[in-house]
Fold this protein.
Amino acid sequence: MVKYLHGFNSQEQQRLKDQAGFLAPLIYPTVDFSGCKKLLEIGSGVGAQTRVLLGLFPHLQITSVDFSSAQLDKAKENLKDFESRITFVNQDAERLLLHDKFDSAFICWALEHITSPIAALQQLRTHLLPGSKIHITEVFNSTFYCYPKSPAMDYYYQKYNEQQLRFGGNPDVGSQLGNLLFQAGFSKISLLHNGFHLDQSNPAELKRFIDFWKILMKSGADGLLEAGMVTQEDIAQMENDLDRVTADENAVFFYQFVQAKATV
Ligand SMILES: C[S@@+](CC[C@H](N)C(=O)[O-])C[C@H]1O[C@@H](n2cnc3c(N)ncnc32)[C@H](O)[C@@H]1O
């Protein structure tokens, strides 16, 4: 059995599509592949980011790599209308072996799940031409802060992150992107922080992001229940805590992810 925090069921596959649309306004303003022709995407999932990239950069041909055939099957279905511009590859990013070279690369929410992100980046680099651009967006879960204090949310979040670690991933991999890219031999590395800092000055936006967060948290629920790390009651209380935050007049909801750019 593949140990993967979010699982591969159809609800999760739909979540990835919704998430890509929801977060696109935060992720893509800093992504620039203009002038690039062949992009390698690692951990492409159901092709939700691939679709955004294909739309934004009409000259790109994309090779999408994922180690889950279930995700790739769904991606093929989701991207039928872009068939001529995509190649799908079922491989583990840590042992990538392609007979092709690329001038650009993209990774989003995938290194966090990979046991050796340095191996994945080293492998990736061998497939990139000199001067290639890479763009990575990754989690930095320790940055999460919410007010008022929410013990059930804190408890669930601790278990959620523990599960990620137990499965060989790193819920704070975003913090390491600079080191990882440097150690993998990339140059011109730059890091950006992005995310949200919401409060009652914009209650609609606060609610929108807290609702998104609930769905994200619940994407780990099946695995956490199966491992006996949380109960149904813990999940319900975590959701109640988040509802209380939404309604609190002094609510604060804060999270930062990391975006890295570099060159070969
Ligand atoms: C959270 S999803 C993100 C998918 C996509 N990048 C997006 O943002 O919608 C992470 C994806 O990485 C894939 N993945 C995890 N470990 C991998 C590995 N070692 N090699 C290739 N793919 C991997 C999973 O199968 C999953 O589809």
In short: The first strand starts at residue 38 and ends at 42. The mean pLDDT is 95. The chain has one domain: 10-263.
